[in-house]
Write a structure and sequence with these properties.
By secondary structure, the chain is mainly α. It is built from 26 helices and no strands. Helix 4 packs antiparallel against helix 5, helix 17 runs antiparallel to helix 18 and helix 18 packs antiparallel against helix 19.
Length: 460
């Protein structure tokens, strides 16, 4: 959910990498000291380029065979490639066993080997030795547990570091992240607000705060947080996109379109953004505009299920039923597992006066997801028209079980009973329907004109 601060490389490191790569290509010669080779190895290691990393280390050990620092880097490579045993042997062979990086690596290796008690002992030793920089030591140990997804254990160290120094922003970001992973959103919100109190221009904190509020469906608070983040960095494309999403949730579709268009100018992810814009126009019932953006998305990405479905729905609203069916059929070729698209297809068939195919489509929809009261009622209506009253009753009653507030549901159950010559069972449903809506009596007589001479609707 959160966006974390990214690792950056300083200009000096970049210069060393350039010089090293020129050396490898044969276009330059030179000598690299231990610190420079450490920097080169670390650069490749952080990027997961373990082969390049190993090559640089080999050169380093040729030039500096007794360097404990480079041997430590070799242990890091083995650790990165999943060979904890070799990493541990190298670390145990080093003469400088009290070196901070060596101890941290030992802790990491022990944790990966599930030797948690030994890792805890080393962690406690580090914390006992360090007093001034205790918060950063806690942060470093927490990072190891975070890498394993051990959020509760990471929290222990982060809380301890926070007690030592409550102004360490890097630590606070990790603390908030752990609370998020633990679904403790209130604590995460508190921590992000602490970061903002320390530095109100920390846009990552505002963004992450917005993400939490979005997850909690507190959309006004999410919008406020995204707005603050964009005030700090107006070119932050991800925040711009999220602002569009939250405006959509707030039914502020015109403003959402503005945010999506701004995001579209910032990114190459155009076809997906056009989908978002099309959905806004669809909500505004500007179906022609919606179709335009869905089509633009489809032009870029032809096998675009969302665009095909979206165009099909818009054409359905415009009562262009044959065209709608064409797009819905194409969507079905890509994925026929969505119950709602079968419903849209059924509605297109209804518009084309093809009741039989409409019924088939409705039935396929409820076969995927039976929990659709409106669809069950639509099926019952078709069976009622076909004179299959037992089936109509079954689906009306199933629909009522799912949603007792369906409009006229009691009336239609009563009609089905009446049509099935079961007048005694029809009466209570029809009386309930009339109590709910006076127009039900008139509608009943339209559906059942043969009942005009009965006393079903007398007031008793």
């Amino acid at each position: 959910m959160s966006r974390k601060l990214s690792y950056s490389v300083d200009d000096e490191s970049i210069d060393i990498i350039k010089r090293y790569e020129q050396f490898l290509s044969g276009s330059a010669s030179g000598y690299f000291d231990v610190e420079e080779l450490e920097s080169i190895v670390e650069y490749y290691l952080r990027r997961g380029r373990t082969k390049d990393c190993a090559k640089a280390l080999e050169l380093g050990l040729q030039l500096h065979p007794n360097s404990n620092a480079l041997k430590t880097k070799r242990a890091k490579i083995f650790l990165a490639t999943g060979d904890e045993q070799k990493a541990f042997r190298i670390l145990n062979s080093l003469t400088e066993t009290s070196d901070y990086e060596v101890v941290l690596l030992k802790i990491e290796v022990l944790i990966k080997m599930d030797r948690f008690m030994e890792a805890q002992v080393l962690s406690n030793q580090l914390l006992a030795e360090e007093t001034e920089d205790l918060d950063n030591v806690c942060l470093d140990i927490a990072f190891i547990y975070l890498g394993r997804g051990e959020y509760q254990k990471a929290l222990e160290f982060l809380k301890k570091g926070d007690l030592h120094n409550d102004g360490n922003i890097d630590l606070l970001f990790e603390l908030a992240f752990c609370y998020e992973q633990d679904n403790d959103y209130e604590e995460a919100i508190t921590v992000y607000n602490r970061i903002i109190d320390i530095d109100s221009y920390t846009d990552e904190a505002w963004f992450n705060l917005g993400q939490i509020y979005f997850a909690l469906q507190n959309f006004p608070k999410a919008l406020e947080a995204y707005d603050f983040a964009l005030t700090i960095d107006e070119n932050d494309s991800l925040t711009c996109l999220q602002k569009g999403h939250v405006l959509f949730q707030l039914d502020q579709f015109d403003q959402a379109i503005e945010s999506y268009l701004e995001y579209k100018r910032m990114t190459s992810n155009i076809w997906e953004t056009d989908i978002f814009i099309a959905e806004c126009f669809e909500k505004l019932e500007r179906y022609e505009d919606s179709i335009t953006y869905y089509q633009q998305s489809l032009d870029i990405h032809p096998k675009n299920y969302d665009a095909l479905t979206g165009i099909g729905i818009c054409l359905l609203e415009l009562e262009r039923f044959n065209e709608s069916k064409t797009y819905l059929d194409q969507a079905m070729e890509l994925d026929s597992s969505a119950s709602d698209v079968w419903v849209y297809l059924a509605e297109a068939y209804i518009g084309m006066d093809d009741t039989e195919n409409a019924l088939v489509s409705y039935l396929k929809s409820i076969n995927i997801d039976y929990n659709q009261a409106d669809t069950l009622m639509a099926i019952a209506n078709i069976y009622l028209e076909k004179g299959e009253y037992d089936l109509a009753l079954k689906f009306y009653k199933d629909a009522q079980m799912q949603d007792k507030d369906l409009e006229y549901i009691n009336l239609f159950i009563g009609v089905a009973y009446f049509k099935n010559d079961n007048i005694l069972d029809a009466i209570p449903y029809l009386q309930t329907a009339v109590r709910e809506n006076e127009q039900a009596a008139e509608l009943f007589l339209e559906l059942c004109p043969e009942a005009i001479d009965t006393l079903l609707l007398d007031n008793h």
